[in-house]
Amino acid sequence: MSTATEAATERVVHRSCPLCEATCGIDVRVDITANRALSVRGDEKDPLSAGYICPKAHGLIGLQDDPDRLRRPLRRDGSTWREIDWEEAFAFAASGLREIREAHGANALAAYVGNPNVHDMGSMIYLRVLLRALDTKKRFSASSVDQLPKQLSGALMFGGSLSIPIPDVDHTDFLLVLGANPVVSNGSLMTAPDMRGRLRRLAERGGKLVVVDPRRSETARLADRHLFIQPGTDALFLFSLIHVLFEEELTDTERLETLCNGLDEVHALSREFAPEITADVTGIDAADTRSVARDFAAARTAACYGRIGTCTQEFGTLTSWLVDVVNAITGNLDREGGALFPLTATSSAAPGPPPVTPLAHARWRSKSGLPETFGELPVASLAGEIDSGGDDRVHALLAVAGNPVLSTPNSARLAKAVESLDFFVAVDFYLNESTRFADIILPPTAPLERSHYDLVFNELAVRNVAKYSPPAVQHEPEARHQWQILCELAGRLHGANADVVDELAIDSLLGSCVGREETACPNVSKEDARTALGEERGPERLLDLMLRAGPYGDRFDDARDGLSLAKLKASPHGVDLGPLRPQLPDRLTTESRRIELAPQLLVDDVERLRSRLEERPGHPGLVLIGRRQVRTNNSWMHNIHALAKGRDRCTLLVHPDDARALRLEDGGRACVRSRVGKLVAPVVVSDEMMPGVVSLPHGFGHGTPGVRLSVASNLAPGVNINLLTDETFLDPVSGNAGLSGVPVEVEPA
Hints:
- By secondary structure, the chain is α/β, with parallel strands linked by helices.
- It has 24 helices and 31 strands.
- The protein is globular and about 65 Å long.
- The model has no long low-confidence stretch (mean pLDDT 95).
């Protein structure tokens, strides 16, 4: 939906920004005649962001106009590339994948899925179709260098991979933040645009913010209290909070007793983690830990929130679990002002309790022994699956909107492994550090050229909303949306056409939504639903079905006051569905239909945590952590001039005491080494760092020969932190990479 401006040659298109989890509402001003986006500003009528945007939104135009962005398929021709038409591209890609499968079996194919897919409605719907067509167990994604521990702990406790309680930041009185910088990320596994404004309003209503982080981050600078913590010891700190809550009888478990299993076991486990015992390892004084526990329990409402620093470490799943245990035993789980589950417009609305969700974990393992979770292997094992040799190695890779060579551990090893593949298909609109090794690159349309609806981030939002984003500009006639590319590849791998693939997708979803007593629309037949949905194939048709059959839907009755895609399009700024509300026990899909407060898989891992208590101060030497920056979310954003310009942001932050001991100078350069590699980075001496901890941002390391990223290579090349991260340093429960707390040595360069 668009509205006319005073100039007849222009229009304004209301959308959500698809560049990060905040999903801010934006107004895109478009020159109709030139088919060109002119400007981006915040949509003041958006129910979630209310006009707020961050600098990334302005990068949408730079991405749209970027001359480096690929518009047509590229096929490798020796050491050069040539543009080809789509028919040749699809035939070449599909035949190459089929040949590998026929020669070596389905598991000789690997798939890697990058996080931009979650910002693309079409990809979220059709990726599963393509992955089923590949029929391989060698699936990888950016999840295992990001949020996988939180998804696994949520599934163990509540039943689903997206059963993640979200802090009710707009109504809480006390917010405890660990390993997260929401002022910069605007939420992460917590969709919350304008987090700075939300925290200001928290302070205005008399609330408190406490941040626990090895860096005095942008969020920590706004906090009432900031505590430095040794990276990787968050689980010890949380267990100490739990110890105090039980010891001083500060728990509120009256409601939990009818909803959960394992309360006594958690109490018993916490007894050996007194703050006085953990303080030497965490670096947090026992008195501070006890004070935080008492303040959390005394608050009228409180929420504990942990994010990237709590996930990307060697105790990621334990830490993610204990965050929710703290919320639960203080009575703040599923409570307004605490941590609750969103109810999205595309959630299932079938009558009765939702079906039990069997745990998808460790059904198979990588060659290095890492467990599968939710159908994927940890990406830390990808290089080993390729370069380990033997008949069962990976011979071919399909990468969809990802840059694993830059974004996963020990990237030097992975680069060599990817270069050795027999065949590599990339779905991407850049010739980047990973796709430079591809045999064929299939470029999708840019974000402003396609429609969008946030299927995932609404599941993580601090308020229930629904917003459809129409294309802002028209794509070139020969261009392909990503969902079309995925459908075409899936069809050709199965010897069918893309139309058949789309029909199978809609037919499968119809079967789960209409025509049977156990569905949301038992009185609507498949035939009637198909007629109402129309014949135009693609993600909009499936979205319309999910909206109509969802908890706010019209059940295919236009006279009802419920949602459909047409009604959503008629509300171009989006629809406010209200604040988060309690949903338990209805949300639980565990086998017991109760919260599993002490899952056996995690209880068994506590012994590994105990061994950390044997370590004493000074044992790690220097350790490395990453950091998030407001101008970037993915590596390709460094090729957008509006986001890359300005001061050098790829710097090594070092505490003054460490700088003196290491003879490092502010503005100088340092050589940083780990077990797997080394790099040289510019130094910034800053007391925002905890002594003994240094920090580099992620996503940099451009300028590699063979890429076409002119802005990134020349204006903001930086250094790649993943030359230092170690594929063997990880959380063994989930297999998630340990990107925080990597042991390093630093010296002047």
